[in-house]
Amino acid sequence: MNLSPTSFQNSKAQLCFYYKLDKKIVKHKNELIQPGGTFSTDAAQVTLKTFPHTNNKGGYILSFSVKAKKPIELAQFKATFMTDLQDQRMLANGFQSWSQAREMTKNDKINPIRSSIAWYTQLNLQGDYDIFQHSGERGVIHSSSYTHFRDMKNVLSFFGSVSEQYGYTYFIGDFNSNSLSIYKDVSGMRLEKDEEIELVRIFMAQGLDAEAAIWDDYAEFYPDRRCIRGNNMKRHVNGWTSWYNYYGDVSELVINENVEALKKFQYPIDIFQIDDGFQTAIGDWLSINEKFPSGMKAVASKIKNAGFKAGLWLAPYAVGFNSRLAQEHPDWLIIDPESKKPVVAGPNWGGFYALDMYHPGARQYLKEVFDTVLHDWEFDMLKLDFCFAAAMIPRCGKSRGQIMWEAMDLIRDLVGPDKLVLGCGVPLACAFRKVDYCRIGSDVAPWWEAS
Predict the structure, then answer these.
(1) In the chain, domain spans
(2) How many Cβ atoms are within 10 Å of 222's Cβ, its own excluded?
(3) pLDDT of 352-375, one tens digit each?
(4) 233-438 falls under which CATH superfamily?
(5) Each residue of 237-291: pLDDT tens digit?
(6) What is the pTM of this model?
(7) Which helix (H) or strand (E) holds 327?
(8) Could you tell me which residues are beta bridge partners of residue 140?
(9) Cβ partners under 8 Å of residue 290, min gap 6
(10) What is the top EC class of this enzyme, as a single word (predicted)?
């Protein structure tokens, strides 16, 4: 079998399907399922389908549906197809917008984070090291949400998940065994009796020098909730951010000086964005520190009077260890069910917890923050950072990916249709066409470093 979409119409998949039934894990390993067929147990049924996409552009859909015959909690889903990966380069898309994304070959590998580094830095929390096993094996490449294979003639074979609302999807290309696996992070997802979902839905397309056209087709699967929709030239903007010049040492004086300089020298700037450093603590977004004596409404007005859109940085799902929010509302934090302690989401600012967006009080607080920043202070754009914190663990009968999807829906609901959003630290597919812009790549420094 090759990587063309039509090849999957007649190709069997090897299925690994685990679920929890009556508090016991039931494991079904290496079960064969063919297109149009089913794999059935006394508790669940899996159906595999492949069919042409209705856009008539040559794309195909690969679909796995799961129906619960009894109440179950999903634990693992993986489907493997045997295919020829020789002379291919595979796109390895990282977990979130800071992560690396590049094409890799049979000679490459993706290493796990060392346990000593994870223990000391806690940087594992900002990736998917605790979600998906990084094999570290040469020739075993994985990609998050979407991938492509590129042959020596530049023929592109594309695979993109359009079911991220049910969980994170991983594509695993094993060049050693010539196999392509689709892995779904379903841990914690509960299905009631007779409930059926299309757990995996993959858009497949192939073409010579067709990358842009395929991506246009793929994007159409995602509802467009952006402020400026479609391929509109108005979406192309230039911006200035305080972060890469001042990091956390920003102040009202610094902002005023830079606004005046940009205006004086007529730099072609559309958005002037204030980053981290205006608040008293992470999570206490409406408590402004002494470096901004005039308040944020006055600062936003200064920016707008200079002819720029005013932007502001927030990390809506992050709550600093020492914040007033954490001290006064510990019940608003995500709690680990085993330790009964708040979930730590990262080491930044001395450490931060994750806000529980399903808690009514926390949800109302987020609404108050967004309403104040956008409609009282009158900022035009928000840079929303560390979004991954919303989905640190599966809970509420939902997988991590389900939670992340709903977290980004909530953000767009709170922002509304008329304000701009720049996503940051977010799994990309969950943000597709919900945010207007996204920072892709890790932070940069004002110097070169040999590495």
Answers:
(1) 5-218, 233-438
(2) 15
(3) 999 999 999 999 999 999 999 999
(4) Aldolase class I (3.20.20.70)
(5) 999 999 999 999 999 999 999 999 999 999 999 999 999 999 999 999 999 999 9
(6) 0.95
(7) helix 324-328
(8) 174
(9) none
(10) hydrolase
